[in-house]
Amino acid sequence: MSDPTTDDGEPRFRRRSKTWEGGAVKWLFLACALVSILTTVGILVSLVINAWGFFTEIPIWDYLFGTRWSPILKPRDYGVLPLVSGTLLVTLIGALVAVPIGLASAIFLSEYAPDRLRRIIKPVLEILGGIPTVVYGYFALTWVTPQIQKILPDLLVFNALSAGLVLGLMIIPMVSSLSEDAMLAVPRSLKQAAYALGATRLEVSISIVVPAALSGVIAACIIGISRAIGETMLVTIAAGATPKLTLNPLESIQTMTAYIVQLSLGETPHGSLEFNTIFAVGLLLFFMTLVMNVGGHYVVRRWGLRYE
Amino acid sequence: MTETREGLDAPTVPKLFVNEHTASDESNTVIDVNKLDVHYGTFCAVRGVSMKIKENRVTAFIGPSGCGKSTVLRCFNRMNDLIPGARVTGEINFFGQDLYAAEVDPTEMRSRVGMVFQKPNPFPKSIYDNVAFGLKVNGYTGNYPDAVERSLKRAALWGEVKDRLKENALQLSGGQQQRLCIARALAPEPEVLLMDEPASALDPISTLAIEQLINDLCKDVSIIIVTHNMQQAARVSHETAFFMVNDDRAGYLVEFDDTSKIFTNPNDERTEAYITGRFS
Question: What Cα–Cα distance (Å) separates residue B212 from each residue in A29, B12, B157, B227, B236?
Answer without folding.
Answer: 60, 12, 13, 15, 8
